Amino acid sequence: MPKLLVVDDEPSILHFFRRAFPGPDVTLHTASSAAEGLAAVERDRPEVVVLDINLAGESGLETFRRVQRIDPKVPVIFITGHGTADTAIEAMRLGAYEYLLKPLELDHLTDLVDRAFEISRLMRVPAVIPEGDGAAEATDAMVGRCPAMQAVYKAVGRVAPQDVTVLILGESGTGKELVARAVYHYSHRSGGPFLAVNCAAIPEALLESELFGHEKGAFTGADRRRIGKFEQAGGGTLFLDEIGDMTPPTQAKILRVLQGQEFERVGGSEPIRADVRVIAATNRDLEKMVADGSFRADLYYRLNVFTVKLPPLRDRGDDLPLLVGHFVRRFGRELGKDVREVSPEALEVLRRHPWPGNVRELQSVVKQALLATTGPVVLPEFLPPTVRGPAGGSAFDFGGLTGFVTDQLRAGSTTLYADYQGLTDRHLLTLVLRHAGGNLSRASRSLGFTRATLRAKLTALGIPVERPARSDGGEPA
Description:
- By secondary structure, the protein is α/β, with parallel strands linked by helices.
- The protein has 3 domains: 3-123, 3-Layer(aba) Sandwich (Rossmann fold), CATH 3.40.50.2300; 135-311, Rossmann fold; 315-419, Helicase, Ruva Protein, domain 3 (Orthogonal Bundle), CATH 1.10.8.60.
- Helix content is 46%, strand content 13%.
- A 5-stranded parallel beta sheet has the order 2-1-3-4-5, sandwiched between helices.
- Helix 10 crosses helix 12 (297-303), helix 18 crosses helix 20 (451-461) and helix 19 packs across helix 20.
- It is globular and about 80 Å long.
């Protein structure tokens, strides 16, 4: 379990943290002086450190520098009772994760610590590119031996040492963040921070401040200076996930950073040097967005210096049983379940599923199956209804769809609408095409839209459109 170290000389603050993190999910260590805190960092190697800015006359910045010398990847959260918090801001400029003003708010504190734990994990746990069965046991390993995944591994190996922008393309759930972390871990910037920003999850009004920071008074509610992710990630790597959801004004600012290697905080006029490698990812078709004017062509060309394309799970052939075996072992250990194998019948059910949520959906399905399994073998009846379908019905009836939505919500999905729409569209188009004997013209008439629209939908969903000889005046699929 992750370890949290709190260094503060106020007993009330230490008591507050003991109440906020009683366990068992977090191991809490406390120290009441800078010397005790530094010894604890050396001894316990915590994943996150919370540090008071003033410790009985000790310099907060000097304590922070010494923490960084012991463990440069540990996220440090400053807490301060001083309203100006100048020292904390300077520490953030030098690489601290965040700072909080006393009195502390419990909900905000726990949320911030959880995010710091995730940042710590991203920096410390390599996204292993497996070379053998042993490497595939790693928690966050990229598992796969199909030609498309071998091409991904080679691409990571080629681009990681080069300090260039990388664009990762792939459907939702294919593992774009894992590839970004692999590029980071194999790069010469691996000693610096790795920060991730989901551009689709942050409201437009807040995204600019999240990325570039803001000056005090820049807008209503900006009661103090904020250091943005471009500044925090100095010397390291910034991962911009779902960059296709970024609005045109923010796109223009990102373009300026990539072109000139500098930016300004919101409300500021001082240019700040951006010593950051940018890795971007999206499940959108950026070329199409450039063509329709919703994504800047100049930004696309700046991002598209080197592209890594991730294949959807349905196109990875025999990688499915490899992934299933990997997740069975991984979640078996986590859940304390002695499950040794998946029956051939259950594996066949998994093979037939279209996997609109890709590897992320497979993770959820395997975990649910292990929770339901009562013996050493996963049988078809232990698979969730979204995959096997309820008795006497289709896996895509309303009960199955409700189960899919519930599962994705529990898994923390941030792309549920697209995943749900992809699931239902794939099922509908497959049924109609089958009924039409693969004829696109007949299928499009049944669906009520043009053949060109049908072809575009099939392409977007990754459903292959074959072109056998025409025999009846229509175009077969």
